[in-house]
Each structure stands twice: as C-alpha cells, then as structure tokens.
C-alpha cells in the first residue's frame, strides 16, 4: 500500500459539550502538527492525586482534520494508521463512528473507505482522554505519527511481510520471508510475487519469485526461503541490516528492514547472540521525551538511544508499554537490544481508571499489535507480558500469565517471553502477616523492618511464601523477570537450577552488587536499572532528601510543583548525571575516575534518599559563597586508591570500596584533581575547575543540518560558562529564546525537578547552568536561534534544514 504521512493539517481543542455550542463556539480549535501532546501545555495544579502525572490536569481532547480524497481512489482500500493515541481513542469520519482503541500505546488502523466521499473534502475526528489511568505522566492526544494507506483491493497486508532467520552459520544464513496477500475483490486472483534481499550497500544477495493465489475475501501467505552467503550478522557492536523488497507485480510493493542474528538461552551460557554470551546492561525507559512531553518524534527517540548507548547501556526495557516504531528503528540502526513490554496492569487496577477496565476484552488485540510491530526488528530479543502484576502470586494470575505467554509464542516463536514480577507485590494480600512474623523473629518493629524499601523487598523475595506463590507464574516464562529481588539470584541457582533470571528492574544504588551477581551467575543474564532516563511524573521518587528535626520520613512522592521522578542516570534534557558515570565504571567500560561533589548547602545533614536516589552530587567545583566551608567530594573508580589534590596540594590517599571513596575538604576555588592508582601505578585522573570571570551564554546544536521531513529535530543546548568553557553551575538565570525562519520551538526547558515553568514558554531558567531548546523544522531553509540572558551577550546559532 502507498503510505503517506497524515501528520499535517490537524486542529485540537479540549472536548466541548455539544449542547454548550448551541450558542456558538465555546472553545476554539488550535492548529497543530502531529505528533502532539495535548496535555503538556495544560496548567499544572496541586492536588492529592496528581503526583503520578506530574500534576498535569486530566482532560478530554478532540482532534479534527479535513482531507481531500480524489475520485480515482474509489474502489481502493483506504486505511488510516495511528501509531499511538492516548487514551480511549474514538475515531469518526464524516460524522460516522469508524473505530476505537482503548489502549494508549497500541498501533491501530481504521478502515476508512466505506465512510469517505470521493472527489470531495472529508473530515476525520479523533476523541481521546486521560484521567488517573497510569502511575506516570502519559501525555494525551495523537502523540505518535499517523499515516494514510492507499492500495488496491488485492494487496500486501499492512505489516504483512515477516522475515525470520531460522538457520545461520558462517557460510550462509537461511532467510524465510512470509508475505500475506489480501484479496478483497470478488474474483480468484493468481499473482506473481517477487522478493529481493539486499545488503547494507544495496547489493542484491538473494532473490526469487513465486505464484500466489488468493480466493475472494480471503488472505494467502506466500512463504519463500532464501540463502544468503557470508552473512553479515546483526549485533550490538555491528548492527548490520538488510532490506527485503517484496513486489506483487503491478499491484503493490513493500520494503522492510531486518537483521540476521541468532538467539540461544540456557543456564550454562545464559543469553547468547550469534553464539556469544551477552550480559544485558539494561536501562528501563518510560515513553515521554522530556521537554517535548509525550510527543514521539523519530529524532527524539534516536537521540535517546544514542545517548543511552554512549553511557554504556546495551539494552532498553520499554516500561511499561510497547515501544514506538521510531525507537525500534533507532535500536536496529544503532545496536541496542530491546525488551518490549505489554502492560502495567491486567485485571487488577493500580489507578482508578486504568487499562484493567479494558484488559479482558482487548488484551489479545493489543498483544497482536505489539508483535506485528516488532516482528522484523532484530533489536527485539524478548517480550515482557507485564510489569509488577499483583495477580502473579495467585493461581488465577498464573493462568492469565500462561494465556499471555502462549499468545505471544503463537504469534512469534523466535523470541523469549518474560514478565517483570515484583515478588513482594505478588504476595501483598498476605504481606501483613508475613512482615509481623518476620519482625517478631528478628526482634524488630514493622517500621524498622520496612525502613529501607530495598531491604524489605529483598527480605520478602527470598521467603518460602514467595517461592510457593510465584512458582507457576515463573514457570510459564522463558526468562524469570524479577523486580527488586536480587536476593533470589543465588537462592534460585540452587532451588531452580534451570531458571534463567533477568533483573527487570533494580535500584541504581545497588548496581555494584547486582552487577557482581550478574557476572557471577550464568543463570542471571542482566540488570535493568530504574531508570536509565529521568521522566515526567511519579514525582520525586529519586529526589535528594535529608532527615528533619521531627524524625518524620518524607512521603514517597514529592509535593507540587515537583515535575520529574528525579531518578534517571540521564536527566530529561539528555545530560548524564553522576550515577551514570559510576555505572559505566561498574560495567568495566570506563577506566578514568570520576569526580562528583555534594551540594554544600546541606553539608552535615543526614541524607535519607530512597533506594532510587543517588547522592546529592554534581560534577562541579564552582560554589561561590562557600569559601572555607566544609564540602564532601566523591570519587568513583575501579582502582585501588584515589589521591585528591586541591590546587596542587594533596588531601591524602584513600582506598576505594564499592567503586567509590569520599573526601572531606574546605572549599576553595581553583582545581580539584583525582588521581587513581592501581597496584601503586597511576591508572587515570579526573579534573574539575572553578568557573571564573564573566558569565557567558553558549548555544550548541547537536547537528547544524537537519531534515525537513521524517520527524527530525534540532537540539540546542544552552550553557552558562566562563571564557574557557567551564560550566557556571551556580549562576542560574532566565534565558529567553527567539526562533525564526524554517522552524519553531517544539519544547524549551531544563532538568529542574521542581518548577512551575512551562515547556512551551519563550523563557526558562537554567538548572545547574543548562537549558535545552528543541526545534521542529517547518520546511527547507534556515532556522535562526537567538538566546539571551541577563548580563550575558546573546548567543546565536544557524541551523540548515534540507
């Protein structure tokens, strides 16, 4: 089918009661280009239930678009494809109900032909809503791309070309291509199908044709088998891609990308890709794009994958919903492994109006949509059928798990199935009695036992109660996904020697111990931290917290105006935080030490951050007003010892334990140097300098040339620095943005975790000396950006749009 972007020409407004419009238009429409997040521009409001969604308001939204359908399209198959609409989408064409999709993360198509007026303008209207339906910021609206699909009555089905590589060795790879042909005509049709496989250089490496007969009103699958000599295998380090071109002579053609790679799984070798054992250095990632809200642009997804890989990750667990097509394609190109996830809920609700209301009726169709989307992507190695599903500790929940797992296997037998099980949540109904008994056995109170969430989860995880209640739920899986249950790794090696485990969600503060277990046990194939990238909503779970005088522990979530979870290795602007460098060292990917400095205003107070909270540090030695005051310096390293030098004076050497050490110093501006020693020999150094002199505003684009199409964006980082480029992390001030020419600002903000500023404003205050502007091209030409800040010369940058 001919696929044309359907993103332009839309309008949106909050849903209006039709009776209210009898007196005239109550709320005007606004012009928008998709992808679009209708919620991100809403006024945030402090409310008791708002922490999950970052205090953004609930809402119902309606989109409309007028589009012309030529007369020559009469008699053809016409569909409109939505890659994602959040949530409870209802589609009307020319006033008639045309279809719906409750789940906000499923790709779906609307058969539009029967509702269209040919040779005339047509109107499509989409209604959607978001209201207390998730535990994180979801956004709302048509937040992923849309497409118009036009084809003949006899055609290749959408997502109808599926490629597998069942047999691979060094000499050749067997490539099977299964093509589904649809025949909506009233005649038997016998057609010629021609398929060509091309390598990355575009050279045909295999080809063949076949006849395929499709009966009226039915589909037919043409299955072809090819042999590719000397195959270039897809892997994380060498993500070689091929293309498969299928032509239905004179009627239709489709092209898909695929990779040739093998997967194996066993307790002795763990996960093997192309015969090599691989440990998953994993990042859990939510779907929002920070300053863009939930809007899913191809470049935004690609940039996230690029930065995650640069930070040392080789795998992403999309949590807790299916990954976008754009991110899957980026993972294929860049070499990033994917665990794609279905749902955060099944039949038991976690939020008042969540997907559990739709799950019993829609789960099969939503799994079908995910697998169809993922099938040809070599990056996808595993499907997760759920996240922290409470039912997994019951026989009924185990039966549901079996249904879902078998459904996935029936659709795709080439990948593995997991489920991210929280063992404590699985036995929540019996947890009270268990904890009381445990407290009695240990001579401690319940509050003492529950003081550290990580310790409590692990204590419950190794109990006989969990072992018994979860046995069947784990038994239906290929890989036992465990959230916050590293205490079971050694236990299950003995009790369940054939059980292969994946740490599907773990605390960032435990990565050194967890990674040691991953390396120690062949049955444990990886670790996925919560989270690799900070996200909107679930506010403040990783925020810096200090003990108060009344000894009251702060609540799990932070109050308004907190905005982000504040727990990612990488912040919402794409800037790596100290935890990221620590993790890179633990992974064995960085030999140099890393300096991180505690914010001195809290020196002497007791840090009580949650297990998702890293130390309250940044990589800065610029602290005006704290001269002579005490300050704590952390150094991360895999060496034996660290020597710290301040302006050339040694502050001593200290041993490294758990990949870190800490020094106490009195702050003075200048240079702070950490030197690592291994076996008495220098093994690397890291240096921080104080910013000096006038503050300058610097603008730097990720690329100076971008595309006018394909969901491309330009990212412009705005940094306060001195003349030598050292960041002025302590000189935050408002920055005003002016964008002209062939582009507009799609989002403008900082990584500040608590703010009332908006992402659609022309002025934002920097955070730790940085802000980020994201520009969307509107056509070929030049985008001119001018940024200004008090007491700084303007910063200008010119970006070419081709």
From TrEMBL:
Keywords: Glycosidase, Hydrolase. Residues 162-261 form the Glycoside hydrolase family 2 immunoglobulin-like beta-sandwich domain. The keyword Hydrolase applies. Pfam families: DUF4982, Glyco_hydro2_C5, Glyco_hydro_2, Glyco_hydro_2_C. It comes from the Bacteria. Residues 628-682 form the DUF4982 domain. InterPro entries: Beta-gal/glucu_dom_sf, DUF4982, Galactose-bd-like_sf, GH, GH2_Domain-Containing, Glyco_hydro2_dom5, Glyco_hydro_2, Glyco_hydro_2_cat. One of its GO terms (biological process) is carbohydrate metabolic process. Residues 271-422 form the Glycoside hydrolase family 2 catalytic domain. Residues 697-797 form the Glycoside hydrolase family domain. SUPFAM superfamilies: (Trans)glycosidases, beta-Galactosidase/glucuronidase domain, Galactose-binding domain-like. Belongs to the glycosyl hydrolase 2 family. This is Glycosyl hydrolases family 2, sugar binding domain. The lineage of its organism: Bacteria, Bacillati, Actinomycetota, Actinomycetes, Streptosporangiales.
